[in-house]
Specification:
The structure is a single chain. The chain contains nine helices and two strands; from the N terminus they run H-H-H-E-E-H-H-H-H-H-H. With 252 residues, it is mainly alpha-helical. The chain has one domain. It has a two-stranded antiparallel ribbon. The longest helix has 34 residues.
Length: 252
């Protein structure tokens, strides 16, 4: 009697679309789309060129502006962003130029997200290299595959969580405070899940770790990121003096 085995979803073959053929905009768009297809696209990081230069370029184009935008709403001192696209100047606005303040908030967002991404990438790629199997012909080394996965999915980082860019935006856009928080929470969690699942699957199929090892390779870096963010903006965090009062009163 034959055993019934559930069908497996097919994995994408070939390199990351950004490194493939076709127009630049098409390759760019398909690579962004793959961030929301964490399982199907997980194998692409272990194929093609071993260089991380294309992944660094893609991360610069996607992660950098999103990370900067993510910091504007929570870290601005001179403006309070209220539900229903409301904006209100604070008392601090009389002493600080608003444009300078917004640029500083964007810089804080970029700094916090970049340090978090750096911790994630170093930890994930190191663990992938330690637990991954030796590459066969045409495959990328496990450590390089791990770094490529983190960099190509870096744009998901400032999108996730309650303080993620969608969460902040929907909280400001939707007039209802409760609905805005709910929509922001759902979208932030969705991006976080896509990010984690993508790296988990990449550890297994691109870095060639065991299923159990892949879980550890994915979990440990995310825990490290939480530690880094607590050090930066948690209670008595290093960057707490640079944050607005309303944020500092409710640290992570």
């Amino acid at each position: 009697m034959e055993e019934n085995v559930p069908p497996q979803l097919p994995l994408d073959e070939g390199p990351v679309p950004y490194e493939g053929e076709g127009s630049w905009f098409g390759r760019f768009g398909r690579t962004l789309r793959d961030g929301l297809r964490p399982r199907a696209s997980a194998a692409t990081f272990g194929q093609g060129r071993e260089s991380i230069a294309p992944a660094l370029g893609f991360a610069f184009l996607t992660f950098t502006p999103l990370a900067a935008l993510q910091g504007i709403i929570p870290y601005t001192h001179t403006m309070v962003f209220k539900p229903g696209l409301g904006m209100e100047q604070t008392e601090v606005a009389a002493h600080i130029d608003t444009t300078t303040d917004i640029l500083r908030a964007a810089g804080l967002g970029l700094l916090i997200n970049t340090l978090s991404l750096l911790a994630l990438t170093l930890a994930f790629s190191s663990l992938a290299g330690a637990f991954g199997a030796e590459p066969k012909e045409g495959q990328v080394r496990s450590k390089a595959a791990g770094a490529r996965a983190c960099l190509y999915r870096a744009w998901l980082f400032p999108m996730q969580g309650v303080l993620g860019l969608p969460g902040m935006f929907f909280g400001w856009l939707i007039p209802s405070v409760e609905l805005g928080m709910l929509v922001g929470l759902i979208t932030g969690v969705a991006f976080a899940v896509a990010h984690f699942l993508g790296l988990w699957r990449a550890a297994e199929v691109s870095a060639r770790t065991s299923p159990g090892g892949a879980m550890a390779v994915a979990i440990v870096p995310f825990i490290l990121v939480m530690v880094v963010q607590w050090i930066l903006v948690g209670q008595s965090g290093a960057l707490l003096p640079l944050l607005p009062a309303q944020f500092a009163q409710a640290p992570l």
